[in-house]
Write a structure and sequence with these properties.
This protein has 139 residues and is mostly helical. It has one domain: Four Helix Bundle (Hemerythrin (Met), subunit A) (Up-down Bundle). Helices cover 78% and strands 0% of the residues. The chain has five helices and no strands. The chain has helices at 2-45, 54-77, 89-102, 104-108, 112-133. Helix 1 runs antiparallel to helix 2, helix 2 packs antiparallel against helix 3 and helix 3 packs antiparallel against helix 5. It is elongated and about 45 Å long. The model is unreliable at 1-17 (pLDDT under 50). The structure holds heme C (HEC). Heme C binds next to helix 1, helix 3 and helix 5.
Length: 139
């Protein structure tokens, strides 16, 4: 009887750790993949740094192109285990990937105006999911 109680307690503790680990992996994905890619994406539409050299501008646009690729890939990855969650999660993840994909041509054409516009839509796609799934982030 006593052993069973201990085992049950242990099982519960493991379940809690498991849930925390799943949460942490979404946070890691955000921190290490999604957020840096989004920053690179936004940098294409933002005012360039002062006195940016041609080489630095080229690097900034190339990073934005890589950002699009990453956001598309992460959007797809988030729709499969272990990241997928119930509800509209997959829809939000796909919206992020689609928004990034929609700017591919603009970024390849080095069109800062269109990249800026797409950057606003990307921001909205992040916030849609955060409002529903990470409300403590303040939307
Ligand atoms: C499909 C849902 C979804 C989408 C889309 C999404 N996020 Fe998140 N994001 C989350 C969740 C859930 C958390 C909270 C994770 C946690 O704290 O466990 C989070 C947390 C974060 C964090 C905090 C990570 C940390 O350090 O703890 C950042 C930064 C972030 N998201 C950036 C973004 C950006 C930028 C985009 C858009 C390009 C984006 N997210 C799109 C679900 C999403």
């Amino acid at each position: 009887m006593r052993i069973r109680t201990i085992l049950t307690g242990f099982g519960l503790a493991l379940a809690v750790v498991g849930a925390a680990a799943a949460q942490a992996s979404i946070a890691d994905l955000m921190k290490h993949e999604v957020n840096p890619a989004a920053l690179a994406f936004w940098a294409a539409g933002n005012d360039p740094p002062e006195n940016e050299t041609t080489a630095a501008a080229q690097a900034r646009w190339r990073a934005a192109e890589a950002g699009v690729k990453t956001l598309k890939a992460e959007g797809a990855r988030m729709q499969a285990p272990p990241y997928v969650l119930p509800g509209r999660w997959a829809e939000y993840a796909q919206a992020m990937a689609d928004t990034a994909a929609s700017a591919e041509g603009a970024i390849r054409a080095r069109d800062a105006e269109a990249a800026f516009e797409a950057g606003g839509r990307l921001y909205d796609s992040c916030n849609g999911c955060h409002k529903a799934y990470a409300p403590s982030r303040g939307g």
